[in-house]
Every structure is written in C-alpha cells, then in structure tokens.
Amino acid sequence: MLNLLYITNRPEVAVIAEDAGVNTVFVDLETIGKSERQGGLDTIQSHHTIEDIVRIRRALRKADLLVRCNQLYDGSQSEIDSICDAGADIIMLPYFKEVETARRFIEMVDGRARTCLLIETAEAARDAEKFAVLPGVDMVHIGLNDLHLDLGMTFMFQLLADGTVERLGRIFDSHGLPWGFGGVARLGYGDLPAEAIIAEHYRLGSRAAIVSRSFCNTDIIRDLGEVKRIFDIGIADIRDLECRLSRGEIDFEKNRRNVVEAVERIVFKIQSKK
User: Fold this and answer.
1) Which residues contact 79 (CB under 8 A, 6 or more apart)?
2) What are the distances in angstroms from CA 100 to CA 30, 77, 96, 221, 235?
3) Is 147 in contact with 120 (CB distance < 8 Å)?
4) pLDDT at 118 over 60
5) What pTM was estimated for this model as a whole?
6) Which domains does the chain have, with CATH numbers?
7) pLDDT at 33
8) DSSP codes, 230-244
9) What would the DSSP string read from start to end of 127-154?
10) I want to staple 235 with a disulfide (CB 3.0 to 4.6 A). Which of 21, 38, 177, 204 is the partner?
C-alpha cells in the first residue's frame, strides 16, 4: 500500500486523517522562495510553525510526522535543531540543486530523524544518481509542481507522461531507496483522474503520494464531521483501488497510454487559453 501523506497544522484534522488511514502527517515550514516560484498558481503555501509540530506530535498515535524545512540558509541549523526537538520523525529538504547542499542537510540532521530529499529542480533531477548514493538519505519524493516549472513545462503531469518520473524512479530503485511522487485527489476528481495516477504509482513502483488539498480542503470545509466523512470514504476508496491494482485487475499499459493522451489534451487546453 502507498504511504499516504497529508499536509495540515491542525491536530484535530491530523487525527481524523490518521484514523482514516493516512500514514504520515506533513507539517510545512517552507516559506523561503516559495511564493516567488509559485506566485499566481493555485498551490499550497503554508505558514506552519515549530509550535504546530509540537501540537501535531502530541496528537498523533501511530502516523509518522514529516516536516518540510526551508531550503538551506544561514539559519538552517537552528531551524533543523528546533524541528528535531519538536519531535519530527522525518525531515524533508526542498528545492536544492547541488549534492553538497544535500550532504550539509544530512549532516545537520545528524541521525536525529529520517531524511527525505524533495527532487524539484532541474539540477536535482539531472544528478539524481549522485543524490541516490549519498549516505544518510532515507527516502526521496519527486515534487512535480516545482520541477515542471523549473523545466519550463505547462502541466505538472507532463513529467509522468514523458517518462521523467519513470527514469528517476528506476535510479532510486536501483539503490534500494524508497520514493514517491506528486499528489492524489479523491477518486473521480482531478484534472487527470486520481485512479489513473494511482495506477501509475503501482506500475512504476512508487511507494508514496501526498493526499492533495483538493482531496479535502479544510480551509473551505470547516465542519469536522464532514471532514471525517470525506477522509473515511476517500481513503477507503483509494485502499480498495490499491487492492484491485495488487490483484492485477487493471491493465497498466493501457492506463499509461490513457495518461499520456489525457496529459496531451490538458496541455493543449491550457496552452490554448494563453
């Protein structure tokens, strides 16, 4: 089964997600450079804090707690120390370009938490082999949004259609490094159907996906009873689909072709509006 991650700084929502079957709750401290990269796009730009980590840590009973720090800066050591002290199980490094940067991050964590490298720059994707062999890297996630922007693409799932995700995944697999990519909406939702994306996770051997904001946007849906209903049904639907995928009930090659065709249609539609 996929390791499903959900971004929130609200303990009550974290518990609902955990009870529904989300494996990892994700607190997002990243602010440096993010608005400049993603300005004008409908993307999550969280403003979480160290205190949010503490509160989520206290609330969780079985799910892992992942924290995305900022890209390395003068205050990174202090920030990472605070993240570790607050109880993070995993720390994710975003938007790096050089092997030395990733190495410094791993040294700063110093074994106090597991490390996750977020591949979301052209340089990191190009040099994936070098990052995969770094001692102290525990897992990798391919960030489709920033990576497609950095590569000058129109739609983030072009990276899935053109084989980029598959190429990177094979590198990580060859080094026994768990990896995942992108996010998923509720089944039946999303510009590219969530069912098709999850099938690609299984075809490619991905082990993790972020449950997207569109799955349950708690900035809009404030009623916790409704939030619980959406999570309970939505996560159960994903797990049921995963069982069908594991039993070989879905043709992976046919699904891949459908994904490529759907991405081409979406890209054409987006470009036609410019």
Assistant:
1) 29, 69, 70
2) 20, 15, 9, 42, 38
3) yes
4) yes
5) 0.94
6) 3-272 (3.20.20.60)
7) 83
8) HHHHHHHHHHHHHHH
9) THHHHHT-TT--EEEE-HHHHHHHTT-S
10) 21
